Amino acid sequence: MIEVRDVVLWPQHVRGAPALRERLLGLGPEAVVRLRVDGWITTWSRMKDGKDGRPASGLRPCDEKTRTMWRELYGKRRGELVSIEEA
Fold this sequence. Notes:
Elements: E1 2-3, H1 18-25, E2 32-37, E3 40-46, E4 59-61, H2 64-77, E5 81-82, E6 84-86
Antiparallel strand pairs: 1-5, 2-3, 2-6, 3-4
């Protein structure tokens, strides 16, 4: 499960799936991953590291379908837990 908490997906908010959380946290900058989120197959890319060198672990939607799905979840279900798994 992952908490819908922001406009990006934060791997540290994955609950009950430590292997998935660690895999997502270990992605390199701009790596792409396909996830099943709340039943939807979605595509995400890891954010670039900050200009100051700090790593950014957040995942941004890669395509319009994923952006639309996540915006809808964020707008209507923020703070709720939804299912997440690698697709």
